[in-house]
Specification:
Structural class: alpha/beta
Largest sheet: 6 strands, mixed
Helix content: 40-55%
Number of helices: 14
Distance between the termini: 54 Å
Radius of gyration: 21 Å
Length: 352
């Protein structure tokens, strides 16, 4: 009997001044990912620049058992936010202690930052010539400090293959769910999201809501229209039908929808259809023409076009990837789904 593959090891680097919320995100998201037999798909460990207490920005410290040598064992390294990065934040240079710690990381290790943790990756040179993001309030300073980085201040997260970065706070949840989805498919990621009680997917290109973080109180939400859409993804959808669910004009609905989601109704619907297609490709043997009809793309050609635009691979290649991963033990341990170098990008769908 073959033994199951070892879980993908995620090592979280806890730095002085860390934000407890961001520190907990990798443990919460990756720690809930299980294969069909209930075995954990990830092993999550935490290290510091030295074993012992690490001061947070709250009124308590976190005791870390492992030193930086643990980084040498990682398949993925996550650097959460810290408010006390010193010369990293002020001058874009690593301290000797931090440089020595990062030197333990093996070539080919996947690197992930949450919020201002991106400063550490940038100071180490990992982000040179790559798209990256950070909290919108730090983006201008980040770009000045690291001109070689292609900073995108308006997105939730970026995926450049083996280096991924997120904006602040909750965007770290979105990025970690995206990684689970990339590694093990939509079904596993959605189950993690359900257990964590968060939306299963917010595309990385969605805005950080800099101008208007929440809708004005006098405005109605578009929640009813979204729920209505999710029950009818296989049908032709018109903007007028969506607006009717909220009893507003098309113009008003479109404005409110973008204010709340950061994308247009068409882009959001396409993303939901691609997500549904992923689930059908992973879980069923349905022919491509049937998957296309069930997801509202209409034809296999349209399905291929939208899946490739969003995931960087064809539906057939996507299905084969996860069939092979399942045969090897329930998931893509570290390689993940083949994607385009810029990660998922949602295009406008068939909404009129």
């Amino acid at each position: 009997m073959e033994s199951s593959p070892e879980p993908h090891r995620v090592v979280v680097l806890a730095l002085t001044g860390l934000l407890p919320f961001e520190l907990g995100i990798p443990h919460r998201i990756f720690g809930r990912a299980k294969d069909p037999a209930g075995r954990p798909l990830y092993e999550i460990l935490t290290c510091g620049l030295a074993p012992g207490p690490v001061r947070t920005d709250a009124d308590f410290a976190v005791h870390v058992e492992h030193g930086p040598q643990l980084l040498a064992t990682a398949d993925t390294v996550v650097v959460p936010a810290s408010y006390e990065l010193g010369p990293v934040h002020e001058h874009g240079t690593l301290t000797d202690e931090l440089a020595a710690a990062l030197a333990h990381i093996r070539p080919g290790t996947r690197l992930v930052s949450i919020c201002t943790g991106g400063y550490v990756l940038a100071a180490a040179g990992y982000l040179d010539g790559r798209r990256a993001t950070t909290h919108w309030a730090s983006a201008e300073h980040f770009q000045r400090l690291f001109p070689a980085v292609l900073v995108d201040a308006g997105v939730l997260y970026t995926d450049d293959g083996d280096v991924l970065t997120s904006a602040g706070v909750a965007a770290g949840i979105d990025l970690c769910l995206h990684i689970v989805r990339r590694d093990h498919g939509a079904a596993v990621a959605n189950e993690v999201a359900r257990r964590t009680v968060v939306p299963p997917h917010r595309d990385g290109g969605q805005a950080q809501f800099i101008e208007r973080p929440v809708p004005e109180t006098q405005q109605a939400s578009t929640t009813a229209a979204r729920a209505w859409v999710l029950d009818r993804l296989h049908e032709p959808l018109r903007l007028s039908d969506l607006a009717r669910q909220e009893c507003v004009s098309v113009r008003t609905f479109t404005r409110r929808f973008r204010e709340e989601s950061g994308v247009s109704p068409g882009e959001w619907i396409t993303a939901q259809r691609v997500e549904r297609a992923r689930q059908l490709l992973e879980r069923t043997e349905l022919a491509m023409e049937v998957v296309a009809r069930e997801t509202g793309f209409g034809t296999a050609q349209s399905l291929r076009k939208h899946v490739r635009a969003a995931l960087g691979v064809s539906p057939t290649a996507y299905r084969r990837t996860f069939r092979e991963a399942a045969a090897l033990g329930g998931g893509g341990g570290g390689g993940g789904t083949p994607t385009s170098s810029d990660g998922p990008s949602v295009r406008a769908g068939s909404v009129h």
